[in-house]
Amino acid sequence: MTARPMTYLITPGDLTPETFSELRQRLIDHLRVAISAGISAIQLRERSLPTKLLVDLAAEVVSMARGSETKIFINERADVAKAAGAAGVHLRSDSMPCAAVRRSFPSLLIGVSTHSLSEIKVVMKSGADLAVFGPVFETPGKGEPVGLAELARVSDAVRPFPVLGLGGVDASNYPGVLHAGAAGFAAIRLFADATALKRISKELYEH
User: Fold this and answer.
1) Residues 164 and 147 sit within 8 Å (Cβ to Cβ)
2) CA–CA separation, 131 vs 91, rounded Å?
3) Bridge partners (DSSP) listed for residue 48
4) DSSP state of 161
5) Looking at the domain assignment, is residue 11 inside a domain?
6) Which of 75, 39, 40, 74 is nearest to 60 (CA)?
7) Burial of 70 (C-beta count, 10 Å sphere; 0-12/13-18/19+)
8) Each residue of 5-50: pLDDT tens digit?
């Protein structure tokens, strides 16, 4: 998707029908900062929103990103991605088969969460454009970390297919993820911090 290291912001999923009015603008303002900083991609992971609210939110974020290098992915909902004009959809490895999404939505980019080399090989053959792989480092509730050596092995095995490291990635260890050969890294908590987000983008993209 890009020659430069890919930074993939995943939204926390805090929005619900009850909190939408209160929290929507805060999320929009943060994503505007991310887009201005040059974040490569944003995954809207607002799984608790009903379809109408999700489409409205997605359309606003897509509009904000228009003309920038930032691509918008919608978690799980290829139909919402298409309706809102987003660049892509992000799937779990156990959700709708990637091949089915590719047949029905040929214009969408497809990212898939994976946890093994065999899963990555399956989604590659099924039409995915990138894989998010992890957890690389220890992170609450995500199981045993795979570590940088495994990330390096997996990334090398499928190169040039882009693999992004996920799980426990922070400002101190993201260079190790890139050094391991990953195409980039994805994060929720790291990119929820606007100061860290802008600093990392500057380190990566302003040379």
Assistant:
1) no
2) 10
3) none
4) S
5) yes
6) 74
7) buried
8) 999 999 999 999 999 999 999 999 999 999 999 999 999 999 999 9
Which amino acid is located at 111 in the chain? G
Residue with tokens 């990555």: 120
CA distances from 18 to 22, 24, 168 (A): 8, 11, 30
The residue whose two tokens read 């892509």 is 88
Helix axes 20-37, 194-205, angle to 10 degrees: 20
Contact 106, 139 (CB under 8 A): no
Query: Is the residue at 85 inside a domain?
Result: yes
pTM of the model: 0.96
Rounded to 5, what percent of the chain is helix, strand, coil? 45, 15, 40
The two beta strands, 88-91 and 6-10, are unpaired
- Measured distance CA(169)–CA(53) in Å, rounded: 30
Structural domains in the chain (count) = 1
* Domain of 62, in residue numbers: 6-205
Which one-letter amino acid corresponds to residue 176? G
Contact 56, 24 (CB under 8 A): no
